[in-house]
Amino acid sequence: MQSIFMWLVAFMAIGISLGFPAGEDAQAETIKLESENTGDKYSFAYETSNGISRTETGEVKPGAGEEDGSLSVQGSTSWSAPDGKKYEISFTADETGYHPKFRLVA
Known about the structure:
Elements: H1 2-18, E1 30-37, E2 41-48, E3 53-61, E4 70-80, E5 86-94, E6 97-104
Antiparallel strand pairs: 1-2, 2-3, 3-4, 4-5, 5-6
Protein name: Endocuticle structural glycoprotein ABD-5 isoform X1
GO molecular function: structural constituent of chitin-based larval cuticle
Region (Disordered): 53-81
C-alpha cells in the first residue's frame, strides 16, 4: 500500500511542476473548486478561467489484511492548446498500474 501512495505523490509532484503558468495563463483564476474526503474515498474538481479543468476520484479498496489494500483512482484533465485545439487526458490507476488515455476533443 505504501508504494501506491508513493506513486500517487510522484504523479502529483509531476503534475504540479508541469502546471506552473506562463504568459497569460499566469493571470488565470479558479472559477470552480469542489472537494470531498471521507477517509476511504475522496474526490475533487476544479476549473480555471483559461479553460483548464480537472476531476479525480479515489477509493481505498480493502485487501486480505490490514496492509494489503489498494488505492483505485480515476480522473481527467482537459485544456486548450495555443493552437486552439482542446485536449483531454483521462486515466485510471489501481493495483494494475497507471492507464492514461489521450484524445483530441475539438
